Amino acid sequence: MDLILWRWSTLVQLTSLVMVAAFFMVLARSVRRAEVRWWVMAWLANVIALSVTASFWFIQPARMTWFLGAYCGFKIAFVLWLLQGAWVVGRPTTEMLTQRSIITLAAAYGFVCALFIPSIDVLGIVQHLVMGTLLIGGALMLGREWRSIAWLSTGLAIRGTLALVEAAAYWANLDPADQLPAIWAERAGWFISMSSSFDAGVEWFLALGCVLAVSERAQRELAASNRYLLLAQEHLRRVADHDPLTALNNRRTLPDLFQDVRPHGAAVLFLDLDGFKQINDVFGHGVGDDCLVRFAAAISASFRPGDAVVRYGGDEFLVIAPGMDLAAAQSRVEQLRARLATQAEPQVRFSCGFADLPAGGSAMAALQAADQAMYQVKRHA
After folding, report:
1. Is residue 241 assigned to a domain?
2. For 216-231, how does the pLDDT look when each residue is reduced to its tens digit (9 = 90+)?
3. Among 243, 288, 349, 353, which is disulfide-ready with 374 (CB 3.0 to 4.6 Å)?
4. Is 242 part of a structural domain of the chain?
5. Would you say residue 215 lies in a domain?
6. Does a structural domain hold residue 210?
7. What's the whole-model pTM score?
8. Which residues have C-beta within 8 Å of that of residue 122, sequence separation ≥ 6?
9. Taking a C-beta distance cutoff of 8 angstroms, is the pair 335, 307 a contact?
10. Degrees (nearest 5) of the Cα angle 297, 301, 305?
11. Do 257 and 326 belong to one domain?
12. Residues of the chain with pLDDT under 70
């Protein structure tokens, strides 16, 4: 009866593992991530290990040496690749072991098991004890990343605990000293016969943990990329909205600036340098650029921090001073002239036109009025 249960339980787990492995192979085609590749190899190794077990129970060979070695090697490869994928989720830039190391360790372990394990009960004790220790140790190792891979860590811990329980059941079934009650050995035998079914259920939970870990990591990376894109967008917007020479706002910002002052009104000043072409012709464009920079700095220093200074284009500048009347604006312009008068040659001179933008008024009308007033001043200079 136990043999029938054993065969049935093994086939149930094997069918389950084939489905899990197929799922991860499909997942790997759409989600090209390192941890998914490791898990594909892990679940395939588990399928092979269970296929070896199923073959053994149906063939019933006289010698089990190489069946035993193959099972142990692929089962440990499953555990190591599983832990490797979990490690990569928590620490994307590092690997716990190299591919060659995992293959070497699994092959060496399988070879040693084939040589020195004499029976299935001893195999059950050793194999499940090693698996349980590795899986629980892996769960503890990943504890730092608990929030991002909680389901995976839990699945590793549960699968490891089940492996240790199975090791205890094999020990009870073996009971070399005949010290345990007969009922314990009987129940241990029944549990071992059904253990593959229990393993299948827990491994589905473990597979779910793998999928949720991938999803969580993808969400974190997407959120980080989104933050980076928002920062890059903000940087590009600042670059696009500012004049590279003077670092002032450029005319692209005017709609927003006028929208901000619309509820309360503002004074609008249109400033244009006098004789700027002559400065460029006589002193060169480098000196002309320096004059523009000095003029921009002088405007910013002469007006309030909340007043918007804009390089409108070429040697034309705007000041939008919210809540400022024209008398106060004229006083600020006089401060600007006095500041420029103390600077080195070539002397920077300018003409300025004023306009009042009433609350709720037309920004375009105020801008045109300030522009016309500036040219009116320039013609009579």
Report:
1. no
2. 877 877 888 888 888 8
3. 353
4. no
5. yes
6. yes
7. 0.64
8. 170, 174
9. no
10. 115
11. yes
12. 1-9, 57, 143-148, 175-194, 196, 381
